[in-house]
Automatic annotation (TrEMBL):
This is Phosphotransferase family protein. Keywords: Transferase. Residues 37-267 form the Aminoglycoside phosphotransferase domain. Pfam families: APH. CDD domains: ACAD10_11_N-like. It comes from the Bacteria. GO terms for molecular function: transferase activity. InterPro entries: ACAD10-like, ACAD10_11_N, Aminoglycoside_PTrfase, Kinase-like_dom_sf.
Amino acid sequence: MVYKNDTKPVRAGEELDTSKIASFLRETMDVPKGEMDVRQFGAGHSNLTYELSVGKKWKVVLRRPPMGPVAPKAHDMEREYKILNSLHPVFPLAPKPYLYESGNLIGRPFFVMERREGLVFDQEFPDGVAATAELDESLSETMVDRLVELHAIDYKETGLREMVKPEGFIERQFHGWMKRYDRARTDDVVSGERLKKWLLDHIPNSPDSSIIHYDYKLNNAMFSKENPSQMVGLFDWEMTTVGDPLADVGAAMSYWIQPDDPELLKTGLGKPPVTVQDGFFKRDEFLQRYAEKSGRDLSEIHVYMTFAYFKLAGIIQQIYYRYMQGQTEDPRFAGMNVFVNNLIEHAEETAGL
């Protein structure tokens, strides 16, 4: 990064065996001579992502599952590698993957991909970038337009057609996330039974299936240094599949915080994202542009958004469960039960309960 350092020293307990990985990469890639430096991307809460560099010119990104036991079928590095392999040729915002290692080297699988350079808009504007209403609006438009473009790709023309089962996607999602929530539930979070019943009574009729990112949010995108409203990279494809595109829109809206949201929703994962600034789209404006650009009917979007808040509660609860089980010592996770309860409450309000 030029304007803002997006990596930090590796957190205690999450170190890599640098010597072993450097030797492996030198056997399989064209790595220049010199000491390999390892830093960690600090924004994520799930998989662990590192920058590996030698000097100033050679940089790659390594991604691996979190420490400790992980939920079945979660944090599947081989699947994410294959998704990037299929998507990069038709959607170049997805970084190019270089190699996959099945777990023989460090005891856990990982993959290595290209390092993109640019600006990340997270909780603050990058250093050197002025926050203006015009830029806020342009960033909002870009986020909508790239999502519409992703949803317009014919997945049957990509390798994803061999990896997915789009039939019955939304039903499986509703039932699957309820099971995951229950399995990870701790005594200090609500059961959400009333919400789960409402969701099962309102399973929507899905439009035609498309490729969905399913973790589409501003800080998973990277923008040009020369033109800060131009997206140059899109990351975290772990949850990508083929399914209901409106489920992707709902998930994106669950991350898109606006100024009049409840304080506990704004600050659940720390400082609010920059989308709380007045120039950014409100969720209604985001949805209106998506409907205009995609031609899709959003009359049931409140169901998708209700489910998205419930699903986000499930994701956060899985992280909190790992923390409570002593599988991670990351102090950011200590109070996540409060956020889970707030998300369930907000989902109920979105449903009109």
